Amino acid sequence: MSPGVFKIAVLLPALVVLGVGVAFCFARILRGPSPFDRVLAFDCLGLNVVGALLLLSSLFDTDVFLDAALVVLLLGFLGTMSLAAYLERTRAD
C-alpha cells in the first residue's frame, strides 16, 4: 500500500468521525441542560477542531494548519477556563 493511499484510507474516515463529533458538540452547546454542560461541549468542540486541523495538516503535507491548531487550542483553553471561572463565581453568589 502506497503512502498516498494509506493517507486517504485512514485520514478521511478519521475526519468524518471528527465531523460527527463536532456536530454532537454543537447539539450539546445548543441543548445543554446546564451552562456547565455547554462549557464542556465548547471545550470538546475545540479539541475536535484541533484534531481535524492536525489531520488536514498530515493529509496535505503542510505546516500551515499546525499554527492554526496551536492558536485554536490556546484560545479554546483560555475560553473554557474563563467561562468555568465565571460560572463558578455566579453559582456561588
TrEMBL record:
It is found in: Cell membrane. GO terms for molecular function: sodium:proton antiporter activity. InterPro entries: MrpF/PhaF-like. One of its GO terms (cellular component) is plasma membrane. The chain crosses the membrane at residues 6-27, 39-60, 66-87. It is a multi-pass membrane protein. Its main location: membrane. Keywords: Cell membrane, Membrane, Transmembrane, Transmembrane helix, Transport. Belongs to the CPA3 antiporters (TC 2.A.63) subunit F family. This is Na(+)/H(+) antiporter subunit F. It comes from Polyangium fumosum.
